[in-house]
Write a structure and sequence with these properties.
Elements lengths: L1 H6 L13 H5 L10 H32 L1 H4 L9 H4 L4 H22 L4 H16 L7 H19 L7 H27 L17 H25 L13 H14 L9 H7 L1 H21 L1
Helix pairs in contact: 3-6, 3-7, 6-7, 7-8, 8-9, 9-10, 10-11, 11-13
Length: 299
């Protein structure tokens, strides 16, 4: 069971927290701390959705490791993954993947039926990514970004809250920025390996650092601009544009992440980078506090 947990990649479950964003930005509009029943109901629905997406994403990781097992065995780090190392059988990994996906769909149908169509689309998209789309340059990262956007959509649907188009745009470009940063981290990681161990796999060999740096510059600028426009033009935010006060925190976080992407292994594991870097985690916490404070005071 421990090997199964490792293959489910618990460190990457942090990605599913974006499902809470619609709940956060609907504070003091669709729910408040004074309405205990409604707030608790919303929180329960989003938390259940988070668990469901965790199960679904874990099922995808299991399939990925089965498909990549042969290539992972020739990788100096990934060869330690349970499936590649033989600690977890391919047959059991496939069974666990099907079981986790089935449980996630069944649970969503029973507890938050509104989530079921989005979850089915997510699972279908990730399967298409695993077997086909990841072979194509740029399209591979677009699929990852769409997975993030589906999580945000799910967070709004389960509580019946409309989401600003600018938040969609911001999340989309932000996910692209992280995705291309990951590709850069993978390239740097391969280049830093000893001679004979470095090997570009699949679509990665079609990328180069100059091209990725250009994509990072564009997606970072687009993410920051769309967030600025969100704070100014979103109809459900305070009319005094107080949310613009959070722009420096978002800008600092993006710039810090871009800086960290220069180092091999950092951007390759974004979930670890955000948690372990004190600057990143501080900017995230301050941003959350600022958003809650502004919505409490001015909405």
């Amino acid at each position: 069971m421990f090997q199964l947990l490792i293959t489910s990649r618990p460190k990457q479950w942090i990605k599913n927290f974006v499902i809470f964003l619609p709940l956060l930005f609907s504070f003091n509009e669709y729910w408040s701390l004074g309405s205990d029943t409604e707030a608790f109901d919303f929180l329960i629905k989003v938390t259940i959705s988070f668990v469901i997406f965790t199960l679904a994403s874990s099922s995808v990781y299991l399939v990925n490791d089965v498909i990549d097992a042969q290539e992972d065995r020739s990788h100096p780090i990934k060869k330690k993954r349970p499936v590649a190392a033989g600690a977890l059988s391919i047959r059991f990994a496939i069974f666990a993947s099907i079981f986790a996906a089935s449980i996630s769909l069944l649970t969503s149908w029973i507890f938050v039926w509104e989530l079921t169509p989005i979850l089915a689309i997510y699972l279908g998209l990730m399967l298409c990514y695993t077997f086909l789309f990841r072979r194509f340059i740029i399209l591979d990262v677009f699929c990852i970004a769409l997975g993030f956007m589906l999580r945000v959509i799910a967070g709004g649907v389960v509580i019946g809250v409309p989401i600003s188009p600018w938040l969609f745009v911001c999340m989309g470009f932000g996910a692209l920025f992280i995705g291309f940063s990951k590709r850069k981290g993978e390239l740097l990681g391969v280049s830093s390996m000893p001679y004979g161990e470095s090997k570009l796999r699949g679509t990665l060999e079609k990328y180069d650092l100059g091209f990725i740096d250009s994509l990072l510059s564009m997606t970072l600028a687009a993410t920051l601009i769309s967030y600025c426009l969100y704070t100014f033009w979103a109809e459900n935010l305070p009319e005094n544009n107080a949310m613009m006060l959070t722009i420096p925190l978002v800008a600092y976080g993006l710039f810090r992440y871009l800086y960290l992407s220069k180092f091999p292994g950092a951007a390759e594991r974004p979930e670890e980078t955000i948690i372990r870097d004190p600057h990143m985690i501080t900017s995230v916490i301050l941003w959350l506090l600022a958003v809650v404070g502004i919505l409490s005071l001015y909405r």
